[in-house]
């Protein structure tokens, strides 16, 4: 959002939030709605072409910012992105990798058997793990200020997110292709 | 001050004049038009007082097609030329229409979208839909007493880009100015939510004649935020009718039927289905052209059993939408039913069981969508109302790009709030590669072949570099109608190409132009006069917008010199408007547009700023 966003250096600024991992969700949602009330293209339907183009740009920016801050993992990645340079751990803990392999095996098996119950269960386990990770990230970012360790956890989070995505895709495919 | 001069003699700035805006529910089975007039939101009836217009057009040789009730009455005698449920063919190829063989039409397998062969020649589903829209447009003009300033047309939330584009094309062909394509469940939510001052999370379960949508929305202080949507754009009441037809054929031991009999049985099946919503059993008696008279009894329980599979098919998308919304079933405060097919008790029962609460049925499932569209049309046309709603809708299907090995890389995931723009970088995979072909697709599957192809285009003139060094940024942009445009840019050189996603399916601009010329609505109109009129409307609209912006913010956001400068361009445009010179009007419009770019930017920045300050003050106050 090049020249027009001088007053908003980042998404936290845009929504008037402190640049922390811990999120005041209600406040984010309220501020998002207030901004949309003013910039949404529907509010400028009778405006000039310029105004409508700007409205679409600002709305896209607000949507993107809102989604970025709302999702814990994307918020974490965004905070890391705002740091000058962060060292990233070279490897993931082996216990985590072993667990990943096991889960992937379960996924493949459940997928082959079209076992939606097992897939749903696996999805819940992965989501729980992601929730635990979120608590750890809050501690690392906001209390310890350990961005390197946080970057390591973000990598783990990406694994989990990818896995969760594959589970939902499998569930969708089973639903789409009928039972 | 110049401002007063600007608003003076003979100019119609008329900011408070009521604009005639309509909402149209272009349904599979029936269509409706509604409008807010004299403060009341009403569905507009025809001369006989009927509000539903059957979405049926019958083509006859050498005359305008017959549309609506009369066409429906002819369906049995002239099935091949009487197009029913055309919505199911919008933006679809023959391959997409699973039951084409069972329909009494002569399909032409055109790439992208089928056409239908009729006595009046080849007709695209876009043209057939336009005939229906024209009737509604005429009804609205008659009823509201003059030219319309625009229409909101509803589409199933689960319509993909091709189906949306086809709908937009149909409206254009019918001479309607499309203010917005609005998702049907969202329209229903507006009408329901405003009526009941609803707050909280609601589900809208919309089973129409040919499409199924489920949307999960959060309503909060006039903001309608769609959290997730899912559906099936080829599932609806028609499929229940077909089950009954299949059952009759099986009972009567009939196999293939002539087109007339097929149509007759389909109409009969619809009536049987409707009766079975209230009666425990229905007697079916009919005489077909080539068989003995039929006399059968279908029981409600049997009908439910044979259509349970269809009801089940709505539950998987419902669960998916809930999962995507990140909410549990217990978070849903109420379930709004939309669409005539939700009158079937076993559908209601399945919904009640899934959500653990009886659905809300205190509204007319046929009218609610058109009423919601009228509310949005009224707002977008600039008419003031106490109900200032804001809609935040989503795209139903992920948008992505083809990568190596026929795989899809998603760029914008489904259920992203629109408008949205997102970019992703790609690189070349061969040394010295100077062009890159870009294939945009829509769908959830991993393989390109399982998704819908939207557009192919190529970025040429990439400087020859080693493989993997070029940086090509592909930007996907989805507007508030849910329509996609794609652009690609090589970063080091700035070589750029873009495409509004349109030509690879359905209709090219040239085809639309031809249809416009062929179409009755414009056959007599002078093309020149029409072009001039369009320029004048655009110019007047820009003038109105600029004048009201100046009145609001001219003093605070512009220096005297800047105001004077804009004043000069305004006067040139006003002068140009007094003459019928298209070039002069176009140039003056462009000048004013350019001259107000900075002003528009300042206004928008101020809006953001106000959103923040306004909030801070409010918080200090509490």
Describe the secondary structure blueprint for this structure.
The complex is a heterodimer of chains A (179) and B (622).
Chain A: H1 11-14, H2 25-39, H3 49-70, H4 72-82, H5 94-112, H6 116-144, H7 147-176
Chain B: H1 2-6, E1 21-26, E2 30-37, E3 40-43, E4 53-54, E5 56-58, E6 66-67, H2 69-74, E7 82-84, E8 106-108, E9 115-118, E10 121-123, H3 125-144, E11 150-155, H4 161-173, E12 178-183, H5 184-196, E13 200-207, E14 212-220, E15 223-232, H6 237-252, H7 259-275, E16 281-286, E17 294-299, H8 300-325, E18 334-338, H9 345-355, H10 368-380, E19 390-392, E20 399-403, E21 407-412, E22 420-426, E23 435-442, E24 452-460, E25 472-478, E26 484-490, E27 496-500, H11 509-518, H12 520-523, H13 527-557, H14 560-577, H15 582-595, H16 597-621
Parallel strand pairs in B: 1-11, 11-12, 13-18, 15-19
Antiparallel strand pairs in B: 1-2, 2-3, 2-4, 5-6, 5-7, 8-9, 9-10, 13-14, 14-15, 16-17, 20-21, 20-23, 22-25, 23-24, 25-26, 26-27
Helix pairs in contact in B: 3-4, 5-10, 6-7, 6-8, 8-9, 13-14, 13-15, 14-15
Write a compact overview of the structure shown:
The complex is a heterodimer of chains A (179) and B (622). Chain A contains 7 helices and no strands.
Could you explain the architecture of this structure?
The complex is a heterodimer of chains A (179) and B (622). With 179 residues, chain A is mainly alpha-helical. Chain A contains 7 helices and no strands. Helix content of chain A is 73%, strand content 0%. The longest helix of chain A has 30 residues, at 147-176. With 622 residues, chain B is of the alpha+beta class. Chain B has 16 helices and 27 strands. In chain B, strands 1, 2, 3, 4, 11 and 12 form a 6-stranded mixed β-sheet that branches. Chain B has a 5-stranded mixed β-sheet with strand order 18-13-14-15-19, with helices on both faces. A 4-stranded antiparallel β-sheet of chain B has the order 21-20-23-24, with no helix packed on it. The radius of gyration of chain B is 26 Å and the shape is globular. Mean pLDDT of chain B is 86; it is low at 1-15 and 615-622. Classes of the chains: A mainly alpha (179), B alpha+beta (622). Chains A and B meet through helix 2, helix 3 and helix 7 of A and helix 8, helix 10, strand 19, strand 22 and helix 13 of B.
């Amino acid at each position: 959002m090049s020249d027009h966003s001088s007053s908003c250096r980042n998404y936290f600024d845009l929504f008037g939030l402190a640049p922390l991992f811990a999120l005041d969700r209600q406040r984010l949602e309220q501020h998002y709605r207030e901004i949309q009330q003013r910039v949404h293209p529907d509010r400028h339907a009778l405006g000039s072409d310029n105004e409508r183009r700007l409205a679409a740009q600002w709305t896209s920016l607000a949507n993107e910012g809102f989604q970025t801050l709302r999702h814990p993992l994307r918020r974490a990645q965004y905070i890391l992105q705002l740091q000058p340079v962060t060292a990233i751990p070279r490897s993931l803990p082996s216990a985590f990798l072993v667990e990943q392999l096991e889960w992937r095996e379960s996924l493949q098996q459940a997928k082959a058997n079209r076992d939606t119950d097992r897939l749903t269960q696996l999805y819940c386990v992965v989501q729980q793990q992601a929730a635990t990770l979120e608590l750890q990230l809050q501690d690392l970012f906001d209390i310890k200020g350990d961005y390197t360790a946080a970057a390591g956890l973000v990598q783990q989070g990406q694994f989990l997110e990818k896995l969760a995505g594959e589970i939902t895709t499998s569930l969708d495919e089973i639903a789409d292709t009928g039972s | 001050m110049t401002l007063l001069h600007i608003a003076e003699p003979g100019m119609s700035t008329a900011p408070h004049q009521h604009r005639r805006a309509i909402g149209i529910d272009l349904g599979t089975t029936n269509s409706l038009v509604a409008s807010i007039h004299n403060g009341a939101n009403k569905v507009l009836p025809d001369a006989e007082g009927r509000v539903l217009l059957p979405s049926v057009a019958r083509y006859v040789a050498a005359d305008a097609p017959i549309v609506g009730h009369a066409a429906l009455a002819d369906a049995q005698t002239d099935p091949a030329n009487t197009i029913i449920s055309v919505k199911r063919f919008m933006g679809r190829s023959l391959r997409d229409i699973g039951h084409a063989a069972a329909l009494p039409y002569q399909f032409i397998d055109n790439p992208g979208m089928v056409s239908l062969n009729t006595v009046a020649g080849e007709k695209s589903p876009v043209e057939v839909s336009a005939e229906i829209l024209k009737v509604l447009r005429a009804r609205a003009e008659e009823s509201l007493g003059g030219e319309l300033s625009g229409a909101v047309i509803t589409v199933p939330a689960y319509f993909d880009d091709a189906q949306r584009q086809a709908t937009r094309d149909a409206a254009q062909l019918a001479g309607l100015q499309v203010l917005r394509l609005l998702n049907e469940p969202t329209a229903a939510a507006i009408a329901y939510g405003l009526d009941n001052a609803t707050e909280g999370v609601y589900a809208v379960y919309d089973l129409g004649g040919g499409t199924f949508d489920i949307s999960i929305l959060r309503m909060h202080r006039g903001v309608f935020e769609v959290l997730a949507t899912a559906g099936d754009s080829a599932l609806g009441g028609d499929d229940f009718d077909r089950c009954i037809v299949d059952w009759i054929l099986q009972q009567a031991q009939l196999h293939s039927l002539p087109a007339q009999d097929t149509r007759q049985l389909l109409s009969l099946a619809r009536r049987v289905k409707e009766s079975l919503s209230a009666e425990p059993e229905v007697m079916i008696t009919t005489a077909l052209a080539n068989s003995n008279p039929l006399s059968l009894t279908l029981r409600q329980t049997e009908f439910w059993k044979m259509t349970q599979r269809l009801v089940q098919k709505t539950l998987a998308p419902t669960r998916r939408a809930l999962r995507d919304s990140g909410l549990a079933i217990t978070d849903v405060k109420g379930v709004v039913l939309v669409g005539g097919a939700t009158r079937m008790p076993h559908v209601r029962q399945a919904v009640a069981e899934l959500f653990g609460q009886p659905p809300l049925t205190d509204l007319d499932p046929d009218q609610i969508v058109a009423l919601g569209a009228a509310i949005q049309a009224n707002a977008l046309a600039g008419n003031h109302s106490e109900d200032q709603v804001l809609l935040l809708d989503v795209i139903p299907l992920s948008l992505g790009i083809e990568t190596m090995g026929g795989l899809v890389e998603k760029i914008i995931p489904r259920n992203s709030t629109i408008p949205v723009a997102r970019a992703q970088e790609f690189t070349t995979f061969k040394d010295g590669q100077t062009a890159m072909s870009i294939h945009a697709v829509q769908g959830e599957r991993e393989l390109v072949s399982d998704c819908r192809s939207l557009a192919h285009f190529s970025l040429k003139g990439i400087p020859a570099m080693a493989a993997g060094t070029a940086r090509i940024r592909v930007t996907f942009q989805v507007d508030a109608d849910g329509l996609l445009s794609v652009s690609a840019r090589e970063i080091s050189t700035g070589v750029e190409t873009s495409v509004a996603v349109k030509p690879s399916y359905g209709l090219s601009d040239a085809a639309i132009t031809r249809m416009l010329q062929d179409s009755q609505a414009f056959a007599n109109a002078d093309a020149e006069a029409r072009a001039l009129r369009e320029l004048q409307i655009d110019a007047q609209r820009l003038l109105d917008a600029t004048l009201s912006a100046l009145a609001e913010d001219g003093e605070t956001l512009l220096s005297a010199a800047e105001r004077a400068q804009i004043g000069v361009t305004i006067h040139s445009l006003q002068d140009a408007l007094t003459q019928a010179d298209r070039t002069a009007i176009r140039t003056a419009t462009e000048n004013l547009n350019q001259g107000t770019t900075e002003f528009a930017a300042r206004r928008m920045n101020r809006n953001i700023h106000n959103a923040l300050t306004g909030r801070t003050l409010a918080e200090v106050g509490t």
